[in-house]
Write a structure and sequence with these properties.
This protein is mostly helical and 202 residues long. The protein has 10 helices and no strands.
């Protein structure tokens, strides 16, 4: 997990617990307690620490952001000033490709890697963590303006699995957290940056 979790070609390195955590079928605390049992082993310690950092630390960060920013976590106003300035600066940049929401929903872009990520989300209810960054940055790149990109991911047809199912209180919290992570990736780099996809193995 520590060294291979960001490799989409390795299907064994991730926990694959995201859908179960999201829908409340598994508690993050329970997963953390079970993982912590393997801390003593030198063979698994590094992976356990990495897993707990993502499961607990990053999750708590997103939960707290959503709690203390209830009116801004899912809007452009929730971004840092430098990020909003950058988005506005590049808002009129020419786009080589633009796609409608229906095309994105149906994974009908020129990018096979993005299409595969979208289909994985729709059919399996999860997407590889590394590919989420690529996926959301491309939506920004392929939209006429940042506000349109944000509206797209809030649209039922694209993100229905996370935001438009009937949710319990726990599930709503996870949806807000996922939105925070989307914003983290959305604003972490300057718009239209060329994100290098992972290389296919020969």
């Amino acid at each position: 997990y520590a060294t291979k979790r960001n490799d989409p070609c390795d299907t064994t390195a991730q926990s694959n617990l995201s859908p179960y955590l999201h829908f409340g079928q598994l508690g993050a605390q329970r997963a953390a307690l079970e993982a912590a049992k393997h801390r003593r082993s030198s063979a698994t310690r590094e992976s356990v620490e990495s897993f707990l950092e993502e499961l607990v630390v990053r999750k708590e960060l997103s939960d707290n952001f959503c709690h203390f920013e209830p009116d801004g976590y899912d809007s452009l106003d929730g971004a840092a000033a430098w990020a909003r300035e950058s988005l506005e600066l590049h808002a009129s940049d020419p786009r080589e490709f633009t796609y409608s929401r229906a095309q994105l929903e149906n994974a009908e872009t020129h990018d096979e890697l993005w299409n595969a990520s979208q289909r994985q989300l729709v059919h399996l209810g999860k997407m590889h963590g590394f590919m989420r960054m690529y996926w959301c940055k491309k939506i920004l790149e392929w939209s006429a303006r940042p506000a349109e990109a944000l509206a797209t991911v809030r649209e039922r047809r694209i993100f229905f699995f996370f935001f438009w199912t009937k949710k319990t209180k726990t599930q709503k919290s996870h949806s807000r957290s996922f939105f925070f992570f989307f914003f983290s990736f959305f604003f972490s780099f300057f718009p239209l940056i060329r994100f290098q996809p992972p290389q296919r193995r020969s």
